Structure formats: C-alpha cells, structure tokens
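Reopening this ticket.

The earlier resolution said the output was attached, but the attachment link was broken on my side. Pasting everything inline this time so it's all in one place.
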Amino acid sequence: MHTVQLLGAILFGLALLHTFAAKSIEQLAHRHPRHAGLFHLLGEVEVVFGFWAIVLIISMAIVGGGESAIAYAESRQYTEPLFVFTVMVVAASRPVLAVVQSLLGGLARLLPLRTELALVWFGLALVPLSGSLITEPAAMTLAALMLAPLVFRDDMPEWVKYGALGVLFVNVSIGGTLTSYAAPPVLMVASTWHWDSAFMLQHFGWRAALAVLFNATVITAVLARHLRPHTNSDSESAPVPLLVSAVHLAFLALVVVFSHHPVLFLGLFMLFLGFTIAYQRYQQPLIIKEGLLVGFFLAGLVVLGGMQQWWLQPIVESLAPTALFFSALGLTAITDNAALTYLGSLIQGISPQSQYMLVAGAVAGGGLTVIANAPNPAGAALLRHGFRDASIGAIGLLLGALAPTAVAVLAFLL
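Inline output:
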C-alpha cells in the first residue's frame, strides 16, 4: 500500500461522511445566513465527490508532484459522466417530455384507475423498465420529471416521498438489466463475460421485471390516499409540432446509440443545442445546471473510485458466490456498482455462479444511497427541491430503499 493509495482511501471515506452529512450542512445555511452560499454549496450532494476529487488531485500533487497528479487525472475514463450529462439534458427537453406524457396519459385513461394514480405507477414501473432500451440515466430523468409534480410536493408526507424515492432508485437500478447495454454495472462485464441481451433477459430480466412491478404496485397503493388530481402546466404553452418532437427523439436515440463514443454524442449535443435555439418557442429552459452538477459528481466518483481498487478487489476475489452477493449488495452502497462489477471482470477464472451473484448483488443494492448507481445523482438533482430544506437525507433514502431492495434480493436469489 502506497502513501497515495492510503490518502485516496481516507479522502474517499471523508467524501462518504460528507454525503451523509449533506442535509445537516444544508440546514446550517438557514442558521448562518451570512455564509449561506457556502453551506448551500457544500450541502449539495452532487458537489461532494467532485469537491473531494479536487482535494485528492491537489494532495497527490503535493505528495508526488504535479505531473503525476495530472497523469492520474487524465488516465481516468470520463465517458459515463459526459454521457449522463448529455442524455439528461436531451431527455428532459420539453418536446421529449410532451411525447412521453401524451403517451402515458393516453394509457392512463384506458385503465380503471384515477389518472394520477396510473401515471404514478407508470413512472415507477414502466419508465424504469424502459431504461433497458433508452439507458438508465434517460429513464431516471424522465421518471423524475414525471413524478415530481405528482409525488414530490411540499404537502406530501416526508416519509412517503422517501419511500417513493427508494422505489424509484431501486427500480431504475434493476430495470436496466433486461438488455446488456443499458445498465452501467452490466456494461462493465458484458463484453468480457460474453453476456448478450438474450442472456440478460433469461437470467436477470424477468426477475427484475417482477420485482419492479411489485415494488411499484405496493408504493402506488401507499401513495393513493395522498395523491391529488394534477393539471399539466405545459398545456398552456404553445403545442409542440410533431416534427419538432420527432427531431428531439431522434437526437435522444442517437445519443443512446453512440453512448460509448463521447466525441460523437457531444457533437450531436452541440447540434441539439442549436436546434433548441432555432425553435425556442417550443422549448423550456434546459436542465444544464442540474446536468453539469451530476456530471461533476460522477467525474469525482471516477477520480476517487480509481484509488480504491487495492482494497476492494481482494474482497471481491476471496468470497464464495452467496457471500459475494451480499458483499456486493453492501459495498455498492458506498461505491458505484459499476466499479464493483468492473473489478469482478478482472478476476481470472471467476465461476459463472460468482459472475451472476456479483452483478445481481450490485444492481440489487443500487438504490441504497445516492452514489450506489450512476443515474441516482440525476434523480436526486431533479427531485431534491421536493424535500424539506431542498435536500435529500442519506438516512431517509436508505430507509426508503430497504424494502424494495429486499424484494430485489428475493427476486434474484429465489
């Protein structure tokens, strides 16, 4: 163990503690208005890992020299943060939302349920499952924007909102496992272990779908008495022409297709921005700030996480399949689940049963914390204003996610 590795582990631990303390730091802004701006900044969950990643790079420069610190920072892969930022902004654009809301609104009216109740169920079940096609970050963005005015309101009991948030995070994490390209932890191993979409559907997909539908149905039943009819505020704006919506959907599809090629999807994003300016009357403000914060968070996790392999990999390598499942379930709460499965892909001769257990545990635990799954920061950034002090508490999220996580565990183990 080198000094820099120990330093990386210590700063990673401090970042975790900062994550759990973020809500308390946010509350300090109200008690000390003179420094409210600083406390608001440090209380942003999306800022935490980016902040400590900068501390790590500065510390590495002091210990080993500036060139080694820069070399380490440049050796990291930032495709995922860039993609999540891009797909968040495109998926949250008004023309895309208009199509999704129109489609789900039409389906909701066909069901023998109150419209708002059906829409909540769709947002917690069908949209997370669609993440297997449009990728999990896009599904998280669409689900969060759909559910925000229905569930994450000021007059909704706080415990109910945390329950819904826990279900959303868990369902998105497991809902992307019907294919081999949509969930980051699956993507990390799919090529190495030769897992195609047929394999994922046979071994993971149907189990995940059952858990998603069960979780969504239970929490929707809990929410039923708290929901109220929702009027679409977008109905007063100028209707979006079909051609404009089609162009936006085409941009979204192309960004997903080229999700592993940042040069291409960022080029598409530049064209997308130009198109939104050309047809600004059919747009609403793009979520550039929220997307950048999430990208900053994930980039920080990439930088800090790269220093944890020395203690994480021996744990992954040494465990029997069942122990590996529960260890992955717990470890994913304190580190990105894609990082865990990537470490598993490096193990020579790992058995098929251990492969399954590692990935199943990693995706089942993807809703326990904000850092457990890459799309979670996107959901947190879009929904945190619906919570007290405009901040999501780590303990509240953990408690809200325990029950749906247990359902996911049973689905993958039984």
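Reporter confirms the inline version is readable. The CA atoms of residues 170 and 367 lie 4 Å apart. The mean pLDDT is 91.
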